């Protein structure tokens, strides 16, 4: 930016020695974890995790496994994009898993086909509502997510309930609504158009597009700047004239909308919606965010970090399956990772504070 | 010394009052500042000085009373409304966002944009960076790299950023709440230079300070607060530090402020 090697006021400043972006640390962690699993794979199974050792297809990577890794984090990754923004804002959102449940139910009931194998669909949720264009169930789903997010935001911004409590309430309520919607019955048989949204690698494509979109928004718009500012110092933001309440509403609403998109993709991929869909997704999403270097105290982190965090998460889960370890271990290790990431963040904060 | 006549009153408060529940933090403050005038507000800790500033700048909504800017009653709904009307403030508890860099802090809440689209307006980072450089060069503040986040800077540098923020924007009235309380000798001198610059430009300023030397060096008039009330209004040229201390401690009270005793 400046031509000389000096900062403002003549203090020396070597622009070549700029601090490394924190995302690099997450990236190196990802590499390290891959290396560990490669090592364990070679030692325990005599196989490689990511590389194509069999040389069956003449490729370098084991494409099938890579695809599985990315695919299994894509849908929760979409939720994590919203959680990233909420956590940078200094909040927390425990509701997206349940919002996924209720949104999937509602959206799917507007996405059903009229006929199955030439017979009228006997499982229609609503008489006469079938074969709608795909945009309608998507919009209806978005509305449900936006409504849930806006209620979260309004509770947090205007009644000053702690985000933890407000979104915990939404978590329970939305799950209840998901069960109530069809009296606990699953809703199935979507139109081809709806089913296409989650087919094959579509979840990954949607995840990546949304990640790019929100990366740009957080980095280059006033919305992004204010999200970081409020997370960093809410009082200062208010004194500087940022409309803090309105902004919080907006961030939680966007998080709700992203949970709704995740629900659409998930129900499309599974070709069915069930009231129990998305249970505990919020915790996996928070784990991805925290692993990705977003500070739980707000003001710090990025979408890029979260995407890398999601990949780490995926590699660990796949790695465990690959090593044929029990699912119980997976759960336990997930917990350890979340706490470990938060502890790391605490260390970082203390180091920053001790420099002041 | 310039004579400040009623013709060019910049800001006036009438019966300005703020109660926090039972705490009468500010009670019936009548205050005037004229074009080009630099007024000090002094008083003990908890005397109501910051509270007074918070009512003028609409950080809080007043319990009672009027604030007139250029003779017109104002009802700012938020600090940004006050700022848009031309009142720039350095708050006592630095209103800075630690994780953001210098330009982001300077332009917090009034970012320059390239493309307007509601909350999703695109930031003009280059313009903000350049304006920041220019503003800081003008004030002589030393900062190694403006693109570092504020949390890595010394207390003095952070304070200077907060002050540069007010100096960088043209304003009708500048308010500084204890701007040099945490600063070293050099930084204090810098801030005092900024204040002299504003004086030279004929910009009015309200300075809250506990530093007697500073007030007598830089200001035209001293208003003393005691227990939420104004208890003295003194021209610097007609008073001395002992006198001011007497008012601050309550040993003396101005004849026109009997209720403050
Ligand atoms: N939000 C609040 N709620 C209740 N009481 C408050 C609040 N803000 C300030 N007060 C009280 O109002 C009184 C005036 O406080 P204020 O901050 O205006 O003092 P000050 O003159 O700026 O003091 P200092 O020199 O220490 O900055 C104090 O007794 C304080 O405790
Ligand atoms: Mg004060």
From TrEMBL, chain A:
One of its GO terms (cellular component) is plasma membrane. The chain crosses the membrane at residues 24-44, 64-82, 94-114, 134-157, 201-218, 249-267, 279-296, 303-322. It is found in: Cell membrane. It is a multi-pass membrane protein. It comes from the Bacteria. Coiled coil: none annotated. Its main location: membrane. One of its GO terms (molecular function) is transmembrane transporter activity. Keywords: Cell membrane, Membrane, Transmembrane, Transmembrane helix. The keyword Transferase does not apply. PANTHER family: ABC TRANSPORTER PERMEASE PROTEIN YPHD-RELATED-RELATED. This is Ribose transport system permease protein RbsC. It comes from Aquimixticola soesokkakensis. The gene is rbsC_5.
Automatic annotation (TrEMBL), chain B:
SUPFAM superfamilies: P-loop containing nucleoside triphosphate hydrolases. InterPro entries: AAA+_ATPase, ABC_carbohydrate_import_ATPase, ABC_transporter-like_ATP-bd, ABC_transporter-like_CS, P-loop_NTPase. Pfam families: ABC_tran (PF00005). The keyword Secreted does not apply. GO terms for molecular function: ATP binding; ATP hydrolysis activity. CDD domains: ABC_Carb_Monos_I (cd03216). Its EC number is 3.6.3.17. Keywords: ATP-binding, Hydrolase, Nucleotide-binding. It comes from the Bacteria. Residues 11-252 form the ABC transporter domain. Gene3D superfamilies: P-loop containing nucleotide triphosphate hydrolases. It is an enzyme of class 3 (hydrolase). This is Ribose import ATP-binding protein RbsA.
